[in-house]
């Protein structure tokens, strides 16, 4: 049995018959109700075979049967090609779940109609700030689907929705009639400045940027499929441990008095200083010497170090 947990979501993989999975599900429901007071039912703890696809954290994990062609050199120097059979673990991003998330954020009309809506929450923000905020969302989604086989497809869809949503917003804000006119002026990644056609007396954007009165406009990420990174198939190192689990283990070890005392002795032995002790020394120096004398003493020490 394998156990995977991410926040409040957990997945248990069982190598065995379905009866084992049913028994473990019963134990989980009883444990959660007895220990945490949480009442779960069978619909919340689903059982699914991996060949049909398991939904977990907006991804679908399944096992596919592949038939690769194996080539080898037989006796006599003849090259023989033969069909083989094997299984491959497939992790794909759920496009339907991605559309549902966009609907909750009011980027699209509905689950079955993924037509982008104008990004009204950014109505009163500048073009540079709006593009920057949407790029952060795109980068987060690209990292979230880092290990999905269809990463390019789903991230490309996310970029299309966000870019179209911004184009509709800019069309309404700058009194342009369509997204096509917005793209014609601001380019495909919306990196060129837009302004109202009625305000001809306004200074040029390049002049305002030169004197530092406006921010540089960042183009919307992943405007072309070639700019979207592919799936990361690099294997994890041996005995790999996630960062959050490593921190949790270190915290548990610090609760051990023996380990904490040994760590404290090693810090003193190596001539290091603990952060609380350093803060206490700084506060004491400020109280006794004053801010000016403290800065002068720091400058003298810096000169001595440079001279040595």
Question: Any key phrases for this structure?
Answer:
single chain, alpha+beta, 4 domains, 7 strands, 13% strand
Q: Can you put this structure into words, describing what you see?
A:
By secondary structure, this protein is of the alpha+beta class. It has 4 domains: 1-47, no CATH class; 51-93, no CATH class; 95-227, no CATH class; 243-306, no CATH class. The protein is built from 9 helices and 7 strands, in the order E-E-H-E-E-E-E-E-H-H-H-H-H-H-H-H. Strands 3-4-7 form a 3-stranded antiparallel beta sheet. It has a two-stranded antiparallel sheet with strand order 1-2. Strand 1 and strand 2 form a beta hairpin. Helix 3 (127-144) packs antiparallel against helix 4 (151-173) and helix 4 crosses helix 5.
